[in-house]
Amino acid sequence: MQRRDFLNTLAAGAGLVIPLGRHAWAATSAAPGAGTDAGKNSRKLIVVMLRGAVDGLNVVAPVGDANYARLRPTIALARPGDDNGALNLDGYFGLHPALAPLLPLWEQKKLAFVHASGSPDATRSHFDAQDYMESATPGVKSTADGWMNRLVAALPGATTPTRALSIGPTMPRILSGRAAAVNLANGAAGTKANVLDRPAVGKAFDQLYADNPRFGAAYQQGQDAHREVMDAAAGKMNGGMGGMMSAEMQAANGGAPLPNGFPDDAARLAGLMRNDPNIQLAFVALGGWDTHASQGAARGQLANRLQPLGQGLAVLAQRLGPLFEQTTIVVMSEFGRTARENGNGGTDHGHGNVMWVLGGGVSGGKVLGDWRGVGDADLNEGRDLPVTTDFRSVLATIAERHLLLSDKQLVQVFPSLPRGGRLDLLRA
């Protein structure tokens, strides 16, 4: 085995990513145009990706539109106040009852939704659509990096190995690129000691690579990142899969786990972010949303996925404590699902969807976006919600108003960003 391959294998086993070669980390260098504004660095962003295309029409359901129940005779949510009915949001839209743990955030105006949002690209391929949302370049497959990786480079302040963190089986597309990023496994294994934590083994590797002109810097940065995460997990710094899935659903998940274990991962993530102020960006991917059959209404397959998701987001908000006031959490999925249920009691690949935005600075308690209804004449190609708000406009609004990026930096993170389209999503 090549020495480079061995290092990468060892790093992956440790839950870290150490890019070697011409794109090796420059973890201690300042980002282009970086400043030292501590207030800017204290602002956090967490992105939760629902792989498989969640049904936004049953997450935030237009229960006030008679066409909704007509199009979904067996899977539509009942109106608020009825048995197993939706939770009232504004008299027209209702929240899926499995997401009841999030209702207090809505009432506190720290949760908002952007309906009929998504990618302008028309693909209904999970793989292409996820790629476009993670690169933020819809229709362009040749983009080399993910938008969160570009965001690391654009943020003010010195870049550290743990500034961007992912929780999942592998480093996601959204964080791939030149900037440093750390990937932790799901569950408690992500913060367990590895073989290099054994003093004798660690000392041997230190002697082998410490002064190596080619691999030394990358090795040391990987070790530093690992120790920082371990310290944060131990609180030393300041400051599982259930159910059955079809082969198609597993493929749509892209390796992401079902949300069953998300509450525990959310608690761990909150602890890491509280204990390690260097962690500014985080990403989590969850699978199981490709509900072509037996989707259910207030109960069933979708509800079983939404319940731990809602619980996990509520845990994350609670465990972040005062840090939640400086944090914005975005939940998104590659596209929505058909407005009309299919013959199997499920929904097929659609277009427009709903994005969720939570946080202390969110101007919440409202459903935003250019909503046109679900009448036959209002649907895209007669079957889906149209995309009336580009997902990049939502992300750019957060990057500009929450992370305080300049116009020049926004273009670096989101090339070909649509003109205008900023939303009244965050408080001034």
Give the helix/strand class.
alpha/beta
How far do the termini sit from each other?
A: 55 Å
| Unreliably modeled segments | 1-38, 237-243
- Secondary structure: helix percent: 25-40%
CATH topology grouping = Alkaline Phosphatase, subunit A
CATH architecture tag: 3-Layer(aba) Sandwich
In the CATH scheme, the class would be Alpha Beta
The oligomeric status of these chains comes to single chain
**Count of individual beta strands:** 12
How is this structure best described in words?
The chain has 428 residues and is an alpha/beta fold. It has a single domain, classed as 3-Layer(aba) Sandwich (Alkaline Phosphatase, subunit A). 32% of the residues lie in helices and 12% in strands. The protein has 14 helices and twelve strands. It has helices at 3-13, 38-41, 56-59, 66-71, 103-107, 126-135, 147-154, 199-209, 216-233, 247-253, 262-275, 301-320, 391-401, 407-413; strands at 44-50, 60-61, 87-88, 94-95, 111-118, 164-167, 182-184, 281-286, 327-333, 353-359, 367-368, 389-390. Strands 1, 5, 6, 7, 8, 9, 10, 11 and 12 form a nine-stranded mixed beta sheet that branches. A three-stranded antiparallel beta sheet has the order 2-4-3. A hairpin with a 5-residue loop joins strand 3 and strand 4 (94-95). Helix 9 (216-233) packs across helix 11. The longest helix is centred in the last third of the chain and has 20 residues, at 301-320. Residues 1-38 and 237-243 have low confidence and may be disordered. This is DUF1501 domain-containing protein. Pfam families: DUF1501. Keywords: Signal. Residues 1-26 form the signal peptide. InterPro entries: DUF1501 (IPR010869).
